[in-house]
Amino acid sequence: xxxxxxxxxxxxxxxxxxxxxxxxxxxxxxxxxxxxxxxxxxxxxxxxxxxxxxxxxxxxxxxxxxxxxxxxxxxxxxxxxxxxxxxxxxxxxxxxxxxxxxxxxxxxxxxxxxxxxxxxxxxxxxxxxxxxxxxxxxxxxxxxxxxx
Length: 148
Prior knowledge:
single chain, 2 domains
């Protein structure tokens, strides 16, 4: 598996998420601004308030996505890893894991990779271990095959 290809897929995922949220915010904002005052006053005000709450919620999601992207860009993926740490691509008997950000499941070269935060419970169990170690998490054994 190409680690650089996986890292680029993560960047693309984060960029798409940010662009999508920006587009939705713009759409809701335009809809809110173009809502005509011709409908009953109270109904109109309620609708505007609901749209404003939606914009605020989307704004929070956008801020989180931007922070996730900024944190992802700070990770050094290129150094040689002897033990698992942030930036490691780990192959186990249970699949592939990239210790980076909480992005979730991606498919690269027909392989499923779970991109997990270094603060996730599984990552906290894996961090510090080396090749051929076995880690037990939630009664499941993870044998570490390789670390890149």
